[in-house]
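hey so i finally got around to running the thing on that chain from the lab meeting. sorry it took forever, my laptop kept dying and i had to restart like 3 times. anyway pasting the input first so we r on the same page abt which one it is
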Amino acid sequence: MRRFIRHLLPILVAGLLLQGCSGVRLGYGNADSLVRWWIDPYLDMSPEQDALARERLARFHAWHRKTQLPDYISFLRQGQKFVGGQPTAADALSLGDGIIRRSRTMAEQATPDIADFLLTVSAEQIERMATRLAEKNADYAKDVQLADGEGGQRKARYKRLLERVEYWFDNFSGEQKATLQKLIDGQSAGSQFWYEERLRRQRDWLALVRQVQRERPPRERIIQLLRDYAARFDLPADPVRLAEAVALRRASAEIAVAIHAMTTAAQRAHAEHKLDDLIHDFTELLQDA
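ok and heres what got predicted. didnt touch it at all, straight out
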């Protein structure tokens, strides 16, 4: 379920941020169709399942537009304060926690509809889902260069992070890029750990879906299973791994603050302008509602 929400959230909240602010209204306006398009390769939905997904996603989208957009505008303003101020690692962690809280709100709203949909999923579709997840895992492992060890993983992390940073702050100078590389070299890439967490979530998800398909429990039982899954989604239960996850998140927050500290006034103004554009787009979407 939270995997579904993780893909829905960028469409609804960020409106294809990394593709540019001009895509926000188009992406948001077609979010229900985009999510159906994302789900279908995992299941090859029957006409009946597609109709159910269409109905429930349209209802979810209407709920989201009416109730969540004002909060997202406030959250973007919080991001502006981060960019325009002198943020700390605690501020960066707070922004990350804000995204998680909003993800959980969406997951809770979608839970009854997902429960209804799971009751329609066949054993063959579950195996198709498992195969699709394995294919995506192979792509992910290649993207983060898992096979190349810590050095290769840091190289891949630098490339991804530089792309995101330059989207928000515009082009970095050679000196800024060198400093960013030193920051990344001073930390564990964390790629192997997060890959293992990805696999844990998928194992739990497939076990849940198989249980529903095998036992056909009452709807309320499925809803509780989904809530239990969502509760353990973000962080591992094992104390040792939990400590590692918290440390990696803290390290990422520290890098975010260090990146902000190396930016120029013009670069920070560039980021604030992008956030202004997003606030404007979300405000218009809210008025359209």
